[in-house]
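Quick start: what a row looks like.
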Amino acid sequence: MNSKEIIFLIIIVLGAAGCLYFIRLDWKRYGAIYLISVISGNLLCYMFTFLDFYTFPNNILHKGFLIPYGLVSTVFPLIAMFGIRYSPVRWVWKIPFYWGIVHIGVLAEVILKQTEIFAFKPEWDLWDSYTLWWLNYLLFELLGGKMIPSHLRKPINSEAFKYGNWAWIVFHIIVITTIFLAGVYVGITVFRE
């Protein structure tokens, strides 16, 4: 096993452990969210790969498969369940909460794109990914609001998102850093062309 395979295996194992943590809270409700996320995530990923929007030319740990099923079946459901469990009660604070999650996800995609594992085709770009991340997690927030009762959620206190508090600081670090890195990425991409 090479270092990339070990890193991916660690990410999958940590994602699976995180999913199990949430499922143990209520295996019927969080288990249903997990299954819906696994099925929708794999179907969307498969469809976009089949349509040649992006590819996995060196699909480590999933050789012979079109998409990285292990990664999609652990990381995306983990993020969905995390969002449902911890998102603030009021939508005015849910938006910055998910904004941070989406920016981390897109950053991970950009990092993955710099390897030989993942590649965009001309029909797909980061804006498509960014939009899909938002749609996915906001839809799961709505679904989670219907399926997961309040006693199974631990929303971050809205006060934490107010100026100078810990969530405000974390959110600003994530968003400012990723926007800066996006500018660097665009500059490098334009310079290469």
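That is the whole record. The chain has a mean pLDDT of 92. Helices lie at 3-25, 29-50, 69-72, 75-86, 91-113, 126-147, 166-192.
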